[in-house]
Amino acid sequence: FPNWWGDLPKPVYTFLDAIKTEGLTFYPIGTHEDNGLAMIDRMLSQAYPKAKFVKGIAIKGTTVQGDEAKTEEIIEKYLADIC
C-alpha cells in the first residue's frame, strides 16, 4: 500500500472492514517518498485489534517503480527475517 500523508488509502480500510480480520496475520509492506510507514503499524493494530500485524517495512516508491529486482530483494529479505 502507499503511505498517503501518514495513513492508509481509504480503499485499504474498506477492504479490511469487509473481511474477517480476526486471527489473521498481516505483513504490512508500504511505499513512501519521505516518511516511511509513519504511524501506520500502530494505526492498523488499533483499528483491527483481533488481527496480528507484524512490524512492517517501507520501500521508497521510486525504488518500486524503477528497480523491480531491488524491490524483490528488499521484500524477500523482510520476509526471511520475520519468518
Helix content: 40-55%
The strand line-up of the biggest sheet is 1-3
Share of β-strand residues:
5-15%
- Compute the separation of the termini in Å: 21 Å
How would you characterize the largest beta sheet? 2 strands, parallel
Radius of gyration, taken over Cα atoms and rounded to an integer in Å = 13 Å
Q: Which stretches are poorly predicted, pLDDT < 50 over at least 5 residues?
A: none
Which structural category do the helix and sheet elements fall into?
alpha/beta
Q: How much is the average pLDDT?
A: 93
SS field, number of helical segments = 4
SSE succession? HEEHEEHH
Shape: globular
Give the strand tally: 4
Short structural summary:
This protein has helices spanning 10-18, 40-47, 61-66, 68-82, and strands at 25-26, 29-32, 52-53, 57-60. With 83 residues, the chain is α/β, with parallel strands linked by helices.
Commentary on this structure:
The protein has 83 residues and is α/β, with parallel strands linked by helices. 46% of the residues lie in helices and 14% in strands. It has four helices and four strands. It has helices at residues 10-18, 40-47, 61-66, 68-82; strands at residues 25-26, 29-32, 52-53, 57-60. The chain has a two-stranded parallel ribbon with strand order 1-3. It is globular and about 35 Å long. It starts with 9 loop residues before the first helix and ends with a helix.
